[in-house]
């Protein structure tokens, strides 16, 4: 058997950066060493952006979604895109979004009689509820997604909690868990950390870090309220936000309004992965109060540098966290979250053990995970071939 042809379908891609984009790129980069990989996605907003990957990127027309930095792909209205897709002999389709491009991927697989699998990366029901403010519309849209997912040969989820949620929504069988990972390795180079501390004028303050989209769905304003509470307690800290998004200006306004300008920095996007790893290494605590995420890559990246994360309890993204063992949990309350931070650093011996356990329990490397994914693809192809041969 020669190299297999793999199609990865995603509704957004570089130069836009989010967790799902990074997952698909991590898959495609590693799979391209053993297979022919094609990523199907919409065109980017930056007309000067050029794809430079070890795999082929095939883009379709799109239209902007108002009031967001996302776009709506229009693959079926793009003859060139559809012709290119139909000219390929894919062996397996893996959809990473259940919307327009994902639908095209499923339809292609059904026509060709090849396996199609998909991964649940997001709490789509929360997206719908937030955008439409209607439980009825959200229910109808979730039903449509579940209908598409039930067409798959296999569905995967990034953790057990999200698998249970979608099984409850009507999936015929509970998805298998397929964890996320990171390309980071633990950094023992303290020279860069010392340089970063000097650059940001950090002395004996505790360093808190948030990395991700600067978007209110990440609960970023809650964090500023927490920092104000800590400031009032005379707790010394430096808070660093890394990322970009639609609510950067509002975040900056709230920082200034609370008089936190000297305590908080928004650095924007950092594309240099080695440098980003050093920021994770420098941080004493990764703060991630998101109620939206399912299994964020950043919490794995933090664990790779032995930096524990403080989550909100009962959130999906914290489902594999054991409080005070491999991470920390706080109530969805500003005062409680702030008090947990003070408590965490009141026992440094216990804190150091949590740092080690976060690394041990939560760190996953993409190289190992993608080898597993490739074997799963081969199994799906064999199963489909066996079924087709009996017809």
Structural commentary:
This is GDP-mannose-dependent alpha-mannosyltransferase. It comes from Acholeplasma hippikon. The chain has 391 residues and is α/β, with parallel strands linked by helices. It folds into two domains: 5-181 and 366-389, Rossmann fold (3-Layer(aba) Sandwich), CATH 3.40.50; 190-362, Glycogen Phosphorylase B (Rossmann fold, 3-Layer(aba) Sandwich), CATH 3.40.50. It has 14 helices and 15 strands. The strands form three sheets. The protein has a seven-stranded parallel β-sheet with strand order 3-2-1-6-7-8-9, with helices on both faces. It is globular and about 70 Å long.
The major pleated sheet works out as: 7 strands, parallel
Taking all residues together, what is the mean pLDDT? 94
CATH fold naming of the largest domain: Rossmann fold
| Strand order in the largest sheet | 3-2-1-6-7-8-9
Strand portion: 15-25%
Radius of gyration using CA atoms only: 22 Å
Could you say what the CATH architecture of the largest domain is? 3-Layer(aba) Sandwich
Distance between the termini: 22 Å
Uncertain parts: none
Global outline: globular
Helices, by number, come to: 14
CATH H-level name of the largest domain... which superfamily? Answer: Glycogen Phosphorylase B
The number of strands is: 15
Report helical residue fraction.
40-55%
Number of domains: 2
Order of helices and strands: EHEEEEHEHEHHEHEHEHEHEHEHEEHHH
Structural class: alpha/beta
Q: What is the name of the CATH class of the largest domain?
A: Alpha Beta
């Amino acid at each position: 058997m020669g190299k297999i042809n793999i199609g990865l379908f995603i509704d957004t891609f570089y130069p836009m950066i989010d967790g799902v984009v990074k997952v698909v790129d991590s898959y495609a980069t590693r799979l391209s060493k053993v297979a022919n990989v094609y990523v199907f996605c919409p065109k980017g907003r930056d007309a000067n952006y050029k794809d430079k990957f070890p795999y082929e990127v095939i883009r379709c027309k799109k239209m902007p979604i108002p009031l967001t930095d996302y776009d709506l792909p229009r693959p079926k209205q793009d003859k060139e895109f559809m012709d290119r897709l139909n000219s390929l002999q894919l062996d397996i389709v893996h959809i990473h979004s259940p919307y327009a491009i994902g639908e095209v991927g499923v339809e292609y697989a059904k026509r060709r009689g090849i396996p199609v699998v998909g991964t649940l990366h997001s709490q789509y029901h929360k997206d719908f509820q937030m955008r439409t403010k209607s439980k009825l519309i959200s229910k109808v849209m979730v039903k449509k997604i579940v209908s598409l997912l039930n067409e798959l040969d296999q569905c995967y989820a990034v953790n057990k909690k999200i698998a249970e949620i979608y099984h409850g929504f009507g999936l015929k069988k509970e998805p298998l868990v397929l964890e996320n990972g990171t390309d980071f390795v633990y950094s023992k180079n303290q020279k860069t950390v010392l340089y970063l501390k000097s650059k940001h004028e950090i002395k004996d303050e505790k360093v808190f870090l948030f990395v991700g989209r600067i978007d209110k769905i990440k609960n970023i304003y809650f964090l500023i309220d927490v920092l104000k509470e800590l400031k009032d307690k005379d707790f010394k800290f430096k808070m660093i936000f890394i990322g970009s998004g639609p609510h950067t200006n509002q975040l900056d306004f709230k920082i200034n309004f609370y008089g936190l300008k000297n305590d908080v920095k928004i650095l924007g996007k950092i594309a240099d992965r080695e440098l980003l790893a050093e920021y994770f290494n420098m941080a004493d605590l990764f703060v991630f109060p998101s109620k939206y995420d399912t299994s964020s890559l950043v919490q794995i990246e933090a664990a790779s540098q032995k930096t524990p994360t403080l989550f909100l309890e009962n959130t999906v993204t914290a489902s594999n966290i054991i409080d005070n063992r491999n991470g920390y949990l706080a109530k969805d309350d500003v005062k409680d979250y702030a008090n947990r931070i003070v408590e965490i650093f009141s026992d440094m011996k216990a804190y150091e053990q949590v740092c080690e356990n976060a690394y041990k329990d939560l760190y996953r490397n993409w190289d190992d995970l993608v080898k597993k994914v490739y074997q799963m693809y081969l199994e799906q192809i064999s199963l489909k071939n066996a079924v087709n041969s009996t017809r």
